[in-house]
Each structure stands twice: as structure tokens, then as C-alpha cells.
Amino acid sequence: MVLELLTMAAHRVGRCMLLQPPRLATCVLFLLLPLLLPCSASSSVITHLPGFHGRLPFHLETGYVGVDEETGTELFYYFVESERSPSTGPVILWLTGGPGCSGFSGVVFEVGPMKYVLEPYNGSLPRLVYNQYSWTQMASILFLDTPVGSGFSYAHDPKGYNVGDISSSLQVVTFLKKWFNDHPRYLSNHFYVGGSSYAGKVIPIIMKFISEGIEQRQQPLVNLKLQGYIVGNPITGSKIDDNFKIPYSHGVGIISDQLYEAAVANCNGDYVTTTNELCAKALNAIDNLMSEVDYGNILDDKCVRATPKPINEVSRSRSLQEDYIRLSEPTVRPTINCFSYRYYLSFLWMNNNLTREALKIKKGTVGEWIRCKTGLPYVQDVASSIKYHFDLTTGGYRALVFR
């Protein structure tokens, strides 16, 4: 890349040398200016992380990719190369739910190569260890902070945060085009898009855009070996998902046969919009019972979420001039037996100066890191992803749906 830039610079300056001295300096500056501006993509190889003993036993790269020049939107990513066969193993783009959750959740809570040591917090930096069940033993995985505003992704212009299902999916496709352009050695590997929860709604949309790019022979996607997608506990559409909560809660034994039958008899199959008093009474009783279990995992204890009070990251991001500070603990601290205790540890670890320096986070772009941000101006402009699933599967792409 450096050699290409120097060659380009030499050609441009050579053209300027034909001019007279008064115009020569102006011409050189004008032609070289694009080469002096920041690149739309930047990356760093990370060999050590705070709280992880010794050198990382896997290849980790972090970086930013610009996806919208007008608003200065840059998406942050973590890339872990396959530990077994990076040249032939599959490449997976892994997205997290929300919308507004950081891709780092995939790194330490889902399919990635690290996990937190579960121990009482004593004021020191939370510790990380290697996850022997990581999918990165078999595949290279790109964990992405999307939509913009999630994790460490940011926009210079506050208008850049105004995205939705369609526009954020298009930004992901732009990200992939640029990332593969900088990493062409992975184009020959089989490629999949995967994720969970709300990501399960946008993944078919992203897949559709990628497949269209391949059909239209858009570089470098034309060389991408797109195979299929993976969605876990996927969101499909609010009306479909909300309507299924009633038969699901009955199927797993949260509500009784009598209560379920009352809902069936009086709600006419619509458990979202109540049309009569008997239906409303049954749904209220069901809601009360459902409130006693953890929505994420009904077999877990009912736990608080380790998420600090929401902040308006959009308005705050432009005024960040100070260096990072050591932040206080989240406002709510779950007990160590709760899965959300891991979220509590991630908040403390991510908002430490040493961590941000190690991950090469750009100073002044994002204030407080929050695993799942609320209040982003995100528009859910796709009511249902069913059509996208249908088009992809009938088009020959493989799909894995798991719960």
C-alpha cells in the first residue's frame, strides 16, 4: 500500500514539473493532498491485552473502516484469524443484537476466543482467559460494532447516527467491500454472516445486498465465496415475535393449560392487539407470570442487567476533548451467579485507559463504552425479515437457525 502511494505521488509530481515555478508549488500541494488525508481504513495487530496473562494465543486485529464520507462514519471491528487454518477455513462476519450492542459481546460472551474470569470484583482490572470452545479454532471471525453508535463505532456528524435496518445493512456491505479490499487473501475462503437476537433480523438483509453485489459483479464482492448465514434466537418482526410469546410460554410450562386456553378462546390468534376484556385479562395474567423469568434464558435466575444509565452519545461525542478517564462502577451491580455479572466486568474493563490504548481506540470519538446502548436514533424500517429468508433459501444459500 505504501509503495503504491509513493508511486502515485511520483507520477503526480512529475506532471507538475512541466509548469513554471510560481504554479509548481501549488500544483504539487493540490495533487498530493488526497495522499495526505486520513485513509478510510486503519488497523492494528494486537498481541497483548490488559488482564490477559502473556501474549495472546491467537491473531487479533482491530481497526476502523469508513463507510460514509459525508458524515464521517467509521465502524470499529475485531478480527480473529482462524487458529487452525486461516488460508482455507471459513470467514464469518459476526453481529450482535440490540440494535446497539457492541460486537465485543461476540468476542467474550458468545463465539469468541476470550472470556472473563468470574471472581468478586476487588477494584483491580477484570481478568481474561482463553476460551477453549471458541469458534475461531475453526474459522476466522470479524466482530463488528454496528449500527454506528454501537461499541466504538462513531460518526463525526451527529446526522450520521440516523440509520435504520436498511441503511445500516448497506453500511455493513460497504464495510465488507473495503475490508476485503485490504485483506484480499481471505476472498477465496468460504464466507458466512452470523449473529444473534436483533442481528438475526438484519443478517438476511445484509446477505441479500451481498448476493446482489456478487450478481452485479461489484468488486471485490464478485470474488467473495458467499455460502450462507447463521442466526441464533433471531428477531423476525415485532408482530410475529410478540404473537408467538404466548404459545411459547405455554410450551415451556410458564403458563398453565387453563390460562393458555383462555387466551386462545378470547384473543382470536392476536396476542398483540387486544379486542375484548376477556382477552386483555388473560394477557395481563400471562405478562405477570412472564415478568418473573429472565427473557434471555428462562432457566437462569432473574437478574438485573449490568448496564449504566443511558447517555446521549450522539450529542456528547462531538464535545469530547478530554482524555479518557477511569470511570466509576455501573449503577447496578448483579450478583456473581448471574450471567449479567460478565457484562458488569466488561463495562469496567472496557472503560479503563489501558484497555483503550491496547485496542487502539481513537481518542475523543466515544466516551463511556456501554455494551448495549439505548436511545440511538435507529429506525426499524423492516417490519419482517421473512421475505429475505425466503429469497435467500430458495436462491440456494444455506441457513442455520438455532435457539
UniProtKB/TrEMBL annotation:
Any single biological process term in GO: proteolysis
Keywords recorded for this protein, A-Z: Carboxypeptidase, Hydrolase, Protease, Signal
Pfam families for the chain: Peptidase_S10
GO terms, molecular function: acyltransferase activity, transferring groups other than amino-acyl groups; serine-type carboxypeptidase activity
InterPro entries documented for this protein: AB_hydrolase_fold, Peptidase_S10
Signal peptide annotation: 1-41
Lineage: superkingdom: Eukaryota
Family stated for the protein in its record: Belongs to the peptidase S10 family.
Protein name per UniProt: Os03g0730400 protein
